[in-house]
Design brief:
Largest sheet: 8 strands, parallel
CATH architecture of the largest domain: Alpha-Beta Barrel
CATH class of the largest domain: Alpha Beta
CATH superfamily of the largest domain: Glycosidases
Structural class: alpha/beta
Number of strands: 28
CATH topology of the largest domain: TIM Barrel
Helix content: 25-40%
Length: about 650
């Protein structure tokens, strides 16, 4: 699919980053108002952008096409092909856009349909003048638009459940499978592995090369950070400043490669979530030269940053001004804030999300900066996705420190609420594990017990996305002092407590920053090389951790209790600093013992009789050693044991 990229003017790129967005919001709006009026008088070109670029028959989501090209707003559009009808033509503030409401007949068949654009007049001042030419003399343009057939069962695709394990990776910092695409002529930033915040060359081919590695690890789903084009001149590797919502960054690969990757992964039992960012675009997005509407983005007299006060959504005492600044302010200087209260913007992002799910065959999406957009708009967005795909996953990034705030979004201010990321639990995991001596009240493993005791605020805590680290936090291995035994305890907890576990790329082979004294986003988002994809390439320590995680996650796939069972936990004592809990489903009982103390702990079977029930004989799922209730059993210090019992 050939597309035309309209990039931000070079003069904006030359502005210092601390000042560029401060001036660009108004500068872009002024440029749009003054320049595009002259542009519309130029000879008509073919549309530069038609988005979505194609669609499917049999969809629930209403279709609204955005047409962008010189002077297109000075005409109207009708369909000349039965089965596809243009029900409304909306003009934008810019004369170079049209928005078309499309009705696709239930009898419509896959194929190419024709949209006919016809010039309807010119505008002089505020007065509309009719052209002296006859209608047959007016310029016309036939625009082909393709409708495809949906894949069988597409609407019923299955998203994540607690039986899954999600693997988060950053494509640029994963495996570089195709060095030939590290630099491309039409992208601004070039590869430079010497820079922590530069591009390092990871790509879709690298992910494809690692599919067997991931399957052996026990991963069932992959979440890459944004794969669409980010064309900022610097720090574009993370992908969160999108320049084109319908095009894969060519330094990662192509749209077709992405779709093929997802399909190949499905054959190995691995699904994909796509990272979507409706809250903001990048300053290099093509529409920033010519905004469709004056309120397409939030525009200020000077650069205005969000106050990041997400609590204002649920704070009963919050000032409206503070709430508005959270939602309307720009996330960063290179990230213009989208106005989702504009219905055309909301429809645009809803369709873009549906388009990628349908095109690539995704299990769902992860939505970045969810509470930084209008609450009602995000509720409508999530509801629309649920309507199209009732069982697909919508994971919302809601970065709060308290369960009550997470629960506000998990319960949903509107129907169709998303799966929410459990940031409060993530913060307690490393704090609980790093504290093993000189404990005070509330220190150590009781942190996890106390945090989970707040689960009553959730509708369904078993559906929360749980994690110990992600791309926005310090690496867990670093937080735990690069202690492999503590890291194993963290993995054991994530694999067995309630929720859907997400792990972060490279930690399973002890990937860490180049220098532990310099920790930050770029420093810890280290490039993972293809060396570790095979056992022969891994060091002894790397192989030991990979084997541990692989055994753990492979067993997890077989345990109904861990995937679907109820959680029962026991209060840890400061003396032992040991957390014991059970997952129970039918006759299967899984007992998890995490001894983060400095001394071995002998299990008091009577203390845990409530969790054991009729259990008598079992096994340690990681060592396969036999265990018998009532007989002496010791758990070494700094160790997690997972004991499985069949009570039949």
């Amino acid at each position: 699919m050939k597309r035309t990229y309209v990039l931000l003017a070079a003069m904006l790129w030359l502005l210092p980053l601390t000042q560029s967005a401060a001036t660009s919001a108004n500068a872009i709006a002024a440029t749009s108002a003054n320049a595009v009026a002259a542009d519309c008088q130029k000879p008509l070109l073919v549309p530069e952008h038609i988005e979505p670029p194609f669609w499917w028959v049999g969809m629930e989501t209403p279709l609204q096409l955005m047409l962008h090209g010189t002077g297109l707003g000075m005409g109207t559009v009708e369909s000349t092909t039965p089965g596809l009808e243009v029900t409304a033509v909306h003009k934008a503030d810019s004369p170079n856009y049209l928005f078309l409401d499309i009705r696709i007949s239930s009898e419509a068949r896959p194929g190419t349909y024709t949209l006919r654009w016809t010039e309807e007049g010119v505008s002089t001042g505020s007065e509309k003048q009719t052209l002296s030419r006859t209608r047959t003399q007016l310029r016309t343009l036939d625009i082909p638009y393709v409708l495809y057939e949906r894949e069988p069962g597409s609407a019923q695709r299955q998203g994540l459940t607690p039986s899954d394990v999600l693997y988060l990776l950053m494509p640029d910092r994963y495996v570089n499978g195709d060095p030939a695409n590290d630099n491309t002529p039409d992208t601004a930033e070039k590869s430079d592995t010497s820079k922590d915040y530069g591009r390092h060359g990871g790509d879709l081919e690298g992910i494809r090369m690692s599919l067997d590695y991931l399957a052996e690890l026990g991963v069932t789903s992959v979440w890459p950070t944004p794969v669409t084009l980010d064309n900022e001149p610097i720090v574009s590797y993370h992908g969160y400043a999108c320049a084109d919502y319908y095009t894969i960054d060519p330094r990662f690969g192509t749209n077709e490669q992405y779709r093929n990757l997802v399909q190949e992964a499905a054959g190995k039992g691995i699904t994909f979530l796509q990272d979507m960012v409706p809250n903001h675009c990048g300053t290099a997005h093509w529409w920033m030269q010519d905004l469709p509407f004056k309120d397409w983005i939030h525009v200020f007299d000077t650069f205005t940053r969000s106050n990041y006060a997400m609590s204002t959504h649920m704070d009963p005492y919050a000032a409206v001004a503070d709430r508005n600044l959270c939602v309307d302010g720009w996330f960063d200087t290179s990230m213009p804030d989208m106005n989702l209260e504009n219905p055309f913007v909301l429809q645009y992002f809803t369709q873009a999300t549906v388009w990628w799910i349908e095109y690539a065959g995704l299990a769902g999406v992860r939505v970045d900066t969810y509470p930084y957009s209008d609450k009602d708009a995000m509720g409508a967005y999530s509801s629309a996705l649920r309507k199209e795909y009732p069982h697909a996953t919508v994971v919302a990034e809601c970065w709060y420190n308290y369960p009550q705030q997470i629960a506000y979004w998990e319960r949903g201010p509107l129907p169709g609420g998303p799966t929410v990321m459990d940031f409060p639990l993530a913060g307690e995991i490393f704090r609980a594990l790093i504290q093993d001596t000189n404990l005070q009240w509330g220190d150590g493993m009781v942190r996890l017990y106390n945090l989970l005791s707040h689960d009553f605020v959730y509708d369904n805590p078993y559906e929360l996305l749980i994690f110990g680290e992600n791309h926005d936090t310090n690496r867990l291995y670093e937080q735990l002092g690069r202690n492999p035994e503590k890291l194993k305890m963290a993995y054991a907890f994530l694999a067995t407590t309630r929720g859907i576990p997400q792990i972060y790329y490279g930690t399973e082979v002890l990937l860490c920053a180049r220098d532990s004294r310099r920790l930050g986003h770029g420093e810890e988002r280290v490039l993972m090389t293809d060396r570790v994809l095979t056992q022969e390439g891994r060091s002894g320590e790397e192989q030991d951790m990979y084997d541990y995680v692989s055994r753990l996650l492979s067993w997890r796939k077989t345990s109904e209790a861990v995937q679907q069972g109820q959680l029962l936990h026991f209060l840890p004592t400061m003396e032992e600093n040991t957390y014991v809990y059970f997952r129970i489903a039918g006759d299967e009982r899984v007992m998890v013992v995490i001894n983060n103390g400095t001394q071995p702990v002998a299990l008091d079977w009577q203390r845990y009789a409530e969790g054991l029930g009729r259990a008598q004989k079992g096994r340690n799922v990681l060592s396969n050693d036999k265990v018998e209730v009532g007989k002496s059993h010791t758990v070494p210090a700094q160790t997690a044991q997972i004991l499985s019992f069949d009570c039949k």
